[in-house]
Amino acid sequence: MMIMWKKYKGIVIVFYIIIHFLSCGSNPVKRFMDVLSMSDDMAFSVLETEDRGFIIVGVTYSEGKGDIYLIKTDSSGDLQWYEVFGGKGDDVGKSILNIEDGYIIAGWTRFYETRGYDILLLKTDLQGKVMWQRNFGGRGDEMALSLVEAADGGYVIAGWTNSTGNGKKDVSLIKADDNGNIVWHKTLGSDKDEVAYSICRTEGGEYIVAGWTSSFSKNKDVYVLKVDGNGKLIWQNTYGGEKDDGAYSVKEVGGEYIVTGWTKSYGAGRDDVLLLKIDTEGNLLWRNTFGGRHNESGAYVNPLKEGGYIIAGWTDSEGKGGDDVYLVKTNSRGDMLWYKTFGWLGNDLASSVQQTADGGYIIAGTTESYSRGDREVYLIKTDRDGNLLWHKIFSWKYEETEILVKRFTSLGR
Ligand SMILES: [Ca+2]
Ligand SMILES: [Ca+2]
Ligand SMILES: [Ca+2]
Ligand SMILES: [Ca+2]
Question: Residue 278 in 3-state DSSP?
């Protein structure tokens, strides 16, 4: 397969393009990705690295099309290096793994004009130089939204496809080996839309997948599936009330599963953060919601070393104005212990949170508050009580932010 990647021309063309990126109709995702301007830079995943710095992946529209970036910072959030890569169409990096000799990134690409979006899997070395990339997909669209290391080597990617399956969008699961070659591929779903946003490997070497479905009732419901190491369905279940509910993140904890997302069915009004605990057979153990009269959503959940959960998302009931980053800590029963908001007058969203080695939190997302209205990469570090230690804003456009110079890594193989 011949793959040519275009070099950045270094030209900034001042106009806006509107891209209906995820036409799945999910409001919280629209906040992230539905309307993208050419100058938008967004973070989708952050990890703490072995040197206690941070690696961030996302998309920059600084050239009028989506390109994947990697940003590496030290433990203070100061830039160490960054790389940008992509082809002539949109390329988006959504999820990242830190492996021994580099990084694995999953997302999507529009490399082949006749094939819509395809799932993209790529590996870089520890300095962000691309080692290989793979495209998976059919004539319709497919996107990868999450990936994990497989129990038996390689990676399992979760997302959706409308090229194959049981109708409209279906959950797509792809097992790839260490070199990115497909081992197996499954589509799971029913006649209407199914989308997987998050995948987690269980201690038993199975996979738990969460997203949403509109096939089983008149509106969207949280959709959780468990598959074995070969992608064979063990169980699936839906969770939700009479309005739309969906999941963005799932993690295993003690053989059970914690899920966050959004709900219109329950809570204090409009969308609220949804937190579900599910047992190993898929039975709902408890449900909680967080938020106020306006819109909230949970984007990412992680179990904590000390027990309980940290949830990052956004709220427009609280904070400084528009959406603000919403950080919620709960106990192991899902009761809120505290919450914090971050941001300023524009919309500020979190997409990923991790507990750091110092017991605090690193949060990555997108801010409109610190620029002239477009979106920039937003990195927030807090202590263990959620108090702000520092934040950083990265952008390829504005001088007052961290990154000034565009530098595109030309890829080819
Ligand atoms: Ca495709
Ligand atoms: Ca379907
Ligand atoms: Ca609300
Ligand atoms: Ca705000």
Answer: strand
- Among all chains, which residue has been given the structure tokens 């900034």? 12
Ligand nearest to the CA of residue 341, numbered in listed order? 4
| Residue 354 identity | Q
Of the listed ligands, the closest to the CA of 323 is 4
Q: What is the helix (H) or strand (E) element at residue 32, kind and residue range? A: helix 27-33
351: part of which helix (H) or strand (E)? strand 348-355
Find the 283 Cα to ligand 3 centroid distance in Å. Answer: 25
Residue with tokens 């565009």: 406
How remote is the C-alpha of 112 from its chain's centroid? 24
Q: Report the pLDDT averaged over residues 165-173.
A: 96
pLDDT by residue (tens digit) across 367-387? 999 877 789 999 999 999 999
Distance in Å, CA 161 to ligand 2 centroid: 9
Residue where the block lists tokens 């993209």: 120
Per-chain residues with Cβ under 5 A from ion ligand 1: 115-116, 118, 137
Contacts of residue 183, defined as CB under 8 A and 6 or more positions apart, other chains included, come to 154, 175, 176, 177
How far is the centre of ligand 1, averaged over its atoms, from the C-alpha of 142 (Å)?
5
**Ligand 3 center to 266 CA (angstroms):** 9
In whole angstroms, give the CA distance from residue 212 to residue 208.
Answer: 13
The better pLDDT of the pair 326, 17 is held by 326
pLDDT at 246 exceeding the cut of 60: yes
Residue 113: helix, strand or coil by DSSP?
helix
